[in-house]
Design goal:
mainly alpha; about 210 residues; two-stranded antiparallel ribbon; 9 helices
């Protein structure tokens, strides 16, 4: 979880080598335990294992990046429909409180928190929808999205357009399923359109 959080917060960019010996030393555990962690990250496509070279934080290609957003548009349109039907008053409060945290992070210009909270907002909608399998898929897609944003835009660009999360929360509270689904697709298109797929991070980071 700590390695995953470091990736999401842009502290371990795509291409970073995840050396078993160094990680074992950082966490004070055996290389066998680190190997299990790397296998889990590789299973979720967050790390890539290269023969005779080791594990690296994945660097999604342009095609893979577009596939991630295509998958998210399909999945999240349905998830937010489910969320509009399932959301309780407590769920709405959680969404509002989360949006307030995002706003505070933007005011403080805390870029790591902005990226992390933006992803958590989408995950919160998936959790409210109540489909455990789709929620698990969303966790994987959200982390891949963070890698894409790092690679094709950099940490200085907000992960999600300002105010749109608040508008999505409004749609859920209003039980406007069709509007919420359409706006979610539009929202994800805004995020994707802000990326620059003509350049990438070609440098290998030690």
């Amino acid at each position: 979880q700590r390695v995953l959080t470091a990736i999401v917060e842009h502290r371990l960019p795509p291409g970073t080598k995840l050396g078993e010996e160094r990680l074992a030393g950082v966490f004070g555990v055996s290389r066998t335990q680190i190997r299990q962690v790397l296998e889990r990250l590789a299973h979720d496509n967050i790390a890539t294992v290269q023969p005779n070279r080791g594990a690296f934080v994945s660097s999604p290609t342009v095609e893979e990046a577009r596939e991630v957003f295509a998958a998210r548009r399909l999945i999240e349109a349905d998830l937010i429909r489910q969320a509009t039907r399932a959301a309780t008053a407590a769920d709405i409060r959680r969404l509002r409180e989360h949006v307030a945290k995002e706003s505070a992070a933007r005011t403080a210009n805390d870029k790591r928190a902005i990226v992390r909270l933006s992803g958590e907002f989408h995950q919160l909608i998936a959790d409210i929808a109540g489909n455990r399998f789709l929620a698990k898929t969303m966790r994987e897609l959200e982390t891949l999205t963070c890698l894409v944003i790092i690679l094709y835009d950099g940490p200085n660009v907000p992960a999600c357009p300002y105010h749109e999360h608040s508008d999505l929360a409004d749609a859920i509270e209003a039980r406007a399923a069709d509007h919420a689904a359409a706006f979610m697709v539009e929202h994800l298109e805004h995020v994707e359109s802000a990326l620059n797929f003509e350049r990438g991070n070609d440098g290998e980071i030690d």
